[in-house]
Design a protein that fits this description.
alpha+beta, Diaminopimelate Epimerase, Chain A, domain 1, 18-stranded mixed β-sheet, 9 helices, globular
Length: 376
């Protein structure tokens, strides 16, 4: 049984899987993008803006995080995601305020910390301000970051790019409510100016200590919040002279507190992360492990050498491709057998029994969360 947890940070929601002890199989730790899309589908799966895996470290830190967007692509980092991961770890282990986790990501080592009020403060590291680090083909401007303008659908937009381990473009506008958000966001995400695509943030400056943005996330589209995007926005606004180095960044899902106290140092992000629910994945939603099926499937009968089409053996048969039009191994159909095993499990196991298989650890995590939150 595969347990999962659902967490959200300002409405940016994620499915989290525990694998720090190396217990997740390879078809989970190296997931098929189609499976990630299914899990994140809000009608046919659990639903979420992404999938987060807590994994053993590879470079001597405490753990490693992998995060996959709802479209199945892998992201370098996610600010809301790492806050959710930190809260998940605290809930799982019963950690108290002051606890930090040195976390390996594709954007480097990121260090979240559990605060007294239950929020998560994250040292997001230094921003990347060189064009090739973002990456972008925009040239570095006099403000010290990649800058330029683009004519888009009849409007001229000013652009400023910042890397936070993942690419971002910040677009100052006069009125967030007046822009064609979907059209501009989707176009800028895939513009050739950004060879790895980009996250897009439209910025309205309320005052020097208050910024408001709307977020179009790479691989996810419109989302309620983006932690790395809030950090990139504060960096860009500071360098452009639009804000101070510490400000509240208002997002559709709520505010984040962002500070960049040292222009040569890290950006810090503070915000909430909240548990939504814990659950157990229906076996039918687990990615197929073809190797496991093959090891449990009888070998096919010897095929005729002439007078009939050759049928692939178990070791070479790929149901998804070889059997696209018709089953090539009807006497021992791998797909039918897999479905039969699933149905046998479902018919012989009650829902209560399924939940009980994973209930102990889920109950411990929930009690840990309540005990910590109720602490005077």
């Amino acid at each position: 049984m595969l347990q999962f947890s659902k967490y959200q940070g300002l409405g940016n929601d994620f499915v989290l899987l525990e694998g720090r002890a190396g217990q997740l199989p390879p078809h989970i730790t190296e997931p098929d993008p189609n499976w990630v899309r299914q899990i994140c589908d809000r009608r046919f799966g659990i639903g979420g803006d992404g999938l987060i895996l807590a994994l053993p470290p590879q470079h001597g830190e405490e753990l490693r995080m992998r995060i996959f967007n709802a479209d199945g692509s892998e992201a370098e980092m996610c600010g809301n995601g790492i806050r959710c991961l930190a809260r998940f770890l605290a809930d799982s282990d019963g950690d108290q305020p002051g606890r930090t986790w040195r976390t390996e990501t594709m954007a480097g080592v990121i260090v979240p910390e559990l605060c007294e009020d239950g929020q998560i403060r994250v040292d997001m590291g230094q921003p990347f301000l060189e064009p090739d680090q973002v990456p972008t083909t925009l040239a570095k401007g006099r403000s010290g970051l990649p800058q330029g303008e683009i004519d888009l659908q009849g409007s001229t937009l000013q652009l400023a790019a910042v890397g936070m381990g993942n690419p971002h473009v910040v677009v100052p506008v006069q009125d967030l409510k007046a822009i064609p958000f979907d059209a501009w966001g989707s176009a800028l995400e895939i513009d050739p100016l950004f060879p790895a695509k980009t996250n897009v943030h439209f910025l309205e400056v309320i005052d020097q200590r208050t910024l408001e943005i709307r977020v179009w996330e790479r691989g996810a589209g419109p989302t309620l919040a983006c932690g790395t995007g809030a950090c990139a926005t504060l960096v860009a606004a500071t360098l452009l002279g639009l804000s101070e180095s510490e400000a509240t960044v208002k997002l559709p899902g709520g505010p984040l507190e962002i500070s960049w106290p040292d222009p040569e140092g890290s950006v810090f992000m503070t915000g909430p992360a909240v548990s939504v629910f814990d659950g157990v994945l229906n076996p039918e939603l687990l990615p197929e492990s073809r190797q496991e099926l093959q090891s449990q499937t009888p070998q096919p009968k010897e095929q005729p050498t002439s007078g009939a089409a050759a049928v692939p053996d178990n070791n070479s048969l790929d149901c998804a491709n070889d059997c696209k039009d018709t089953c090539q191994q009807q006497d021992h159909c791998l797909r039918d057998e897999a479905q039969a095993r699933v149905q046998e499990f479902l018919s012989s196991t009650s829902l209560d029994a399924m939940i009980n298989l994973a209930g102990d650890s889920l109950e411990e995590r929930t009690l840990s969360r309540f005990n910590r939150d109720d602490r005077p």
